[in-house]
Design goal:
- The chain contains three helices and 19 strands.
- It is mainly β and about 325 residues long.
- Strands 1, 2, 3, 4, 5, 6, 7, 8 and 10 form a nine-stranded antiparallel beta sheet that branches.
- The two termini are about 25 Å apart.
């Protein structure tokens, strides 16, 4: 059993998400950094779909009520086990009564804490992930709070291993996001689109404090709609990474908690760059670069190679 001492700003039970149910309005609600979550489970020797705790903020702490192994991936953090420093992206052993504390987030934003074994919680619609708005999945359909006891089963001490330092993805600012043309890119002026996603223009956006797990709001120069173009569209299905632009012209990047949208879509973040969205903090700078479908496919193949290498841990 694991006891939550301090859940930091927001802690949720997540996994790879519940994909395949968008037609009935159920979003994925998955871990925002999918690669970090996969690496965590690989380090611990757990199946890829095992649940983990996604944490946002510092001063997160948990107590082990049973002996088992643990690891932290995602954002680089300063952490201790019973007061002794820990190395992130490395498997470490927790004894009964041991306390893990994360005191600082050094690089990135969200990090993932997992254990060798499985949380003994029910799956909801084929996933352990928490849907906060609809209050199902995860641990009792809500964020974790102080005093929560997470039941564990098949706990074990895993072999000591570390993810190679040189392979850990960069997570700090400034952030470059590669984008494909969206369905409504033609709704915006050529000059506006050029400033939005042409590196030569060096048009930076700033992550707004109003961002949340639903979407990342940006502050910066508005995109300009063409004369006579409707600023709203008939609601249609949207994918994670969809960039929507409401009437004020300021982009919003959708994450994993929506299945439809009614705003014009000038671009889509390349699938290989979606993990980066987990680490956009309020105040961070974001730059967009327009790429082709072939370039996006090449980036996705490169990510696939990194995932395949997880089997060598």
């Amino acid at each position: 059993m694991i006891r939550i001492i301090n859940p930091a700003w927001l802690s949720l039970v997540v996994d790879g998400g519940r994909f395949g149910f968008a037609d009935v309005g159920v979003p994925p609600s998955s871990a925002l950094d999918g690669f970090a979550c996969l690496a965590l489970q690989a380090l611990l020797g757990n199946p890829a779909g095992s649940p983990a705790i996604e944490v946002m903020g510092f001063e997160f702490s948990v107590e082990a009520r049973v002996e088992l192994s643990c690891a932290i991936t995602g954002a680089r953090v300063t952490a201790t086990l019973d007061g002794s420093p820990l190395v992130p992206w490395t498997v470490f052993r927790m004894k009964t009564g041991s306390v893990l504390r994360v005191s600082k987030v050094v690089d990135g934003f969200r990090y993932y804490v997992g254990f060798a074994g499985t949380m003994a919680i029910p799956r909801a619609i084929d996933s352990y992930s928490t849907n906060i708005e609809c209050k199902f999945g995860g641990f009792r359909g809500r964020p974790l709070v102080k005093g929560d006891l997470l039941p564990m089963q098949e706990c074990r001490v895993a072999k000591e291993s570390s993810y190679p330092e040189e392979r850990i993805p960069p997570m700090g600012p400034s952030h470059l996001l590669r984008v494909l043309d969206g369905p409504e890119s033609g709704c915006f002026t050529d000059d506006s689109l050029r400033k939005f996603c042409d590196l030569a223009e060096n048009q930076w956006y700033t992550v707004s404090p109003k961002s949340n797990r639903i979407g990342i709001r940006l502050d910066g120069e508005p995109l300009v709609f063409r004369e006579g173009v409707e600023k709203s569209i008939v609601s249609e299905g949207i994918l994670p990474g969809t960039i929507q632009v409401p009437g004020d012209g300021i982009p919003i990047i959708q994450l994993y908690e929506r299945t439809i949208g009614g705003y014009a879509r000038p671009g889509l973040v390349a699938r290989a760059d979606l993990d980066k969205l987990a680490h956009l903090r309020p105040g961070d700078k974001v730059l967009f670069e327009r790429i082709t479908h072939d370039e996006a496919a090449a980036l996705w193949r490169e990510r696939g190679i990194r995932i395949a290498l997880l089997d060598t841990l």
